[in-house]
Amino acid sequence: MKKQAKLIVHTGSMFSGKTTSLWRELYRMKVAGYKTVAFKPSVDSRDEDEKIVSHDNLELDAIKIESIKDILNYAQNNEVDAIGIDEVQFFPDKPSKIVEYFIKLMKKHITIVVSGLDMDYKARPFEIVKELMPIADELIKHHAICASCGEDAWVSFRKSYNEDRIEIGAQDSYEPLCRSCYNIKMKDREKNKNQISIEQI
Ligand SMILES: [Zn+2]
């Protein structure tokens, strides 16, 4: 009998080691004899093509896709036991659709290992990760180190004044912060932002 498929979710702020953990998990499965493959969103232009590169420079070959639906097509045409998906919050698919696709894949006995940000820089949850958390078989919340005080970080603070929800390829403008350092810095950010817009008038 085939092994039962699982949904494993790695989440947390930026720089918390999510991608590294995804890589490790897939690597272990590969060593154990599983046929594994990794996917990443094509909007994620930070890395070289067809690779997932974590902050500690572990590389993993990955196929760039536009939509999670592309994974269903892949699974139709290729033998696969376990898949990894990096930066799941970047996919444009509706969260309910992604959940539907994942259930279909698991019915085919494919284990899914996902990595995704739990919150944006305003500490608002990313819907897809919020949907996946309760239905995951395994859920791991990773923590970076607060850049101000050294406690466990809670969120990715954006140093620039860009207000777009997703700012791709701008990792230098983020730092991980704990809850209390974040609240202090967000107050300053709002103050400075208003100052700048007044000066521009
Ligand atoms: Zn702190």
Radius of gyration: 18 Å
Helical percentage: 25-40%
Mean pLDDT: 90
In terms of per-residue confidence, which ranges show pLDDT below 50 for 5 or more consecutive residues? Answer: none
Helix/strand structural class: alpha/beta
Overall geometry: elongated
**Cofactors and ligands present?**
zinc ion
Q: How far apart, in Å, are the first and last alpha carbons?
A: 69 Å
Give the total of beta strands. Answer: 9
Spatial strand sequence of the major β-sheet:
3-4-2-5-6-1-7
Biggest beta sheet summary: 7 strands, mixed
What is the H-and-E element order?
EHEEEHEHEHEEEH
Describe, in plain words, how this protein is organized in 3D.
The chain has 201 residues and is of the alpha/beta class. The protein is 33% helix and 23% strand. It contains five helices and nine strands, in the order βαβββαβαβαβββα. The strands form two sheets. The chain has a seven-stranded mixed beta sheet, with helices on both faces. α3 packs parallel to α4. Bound molecules: zinc ion. Zinc ion binds at residues 146, 148-149, 151, 177-178, 180-181.
What attributes characterize this protein structure?
single chain; 201 residues; alpha/beta; 7-stranded mixed β-sheet; two-stranded antiparallel ribbon; 5 helices; binds zinc ion
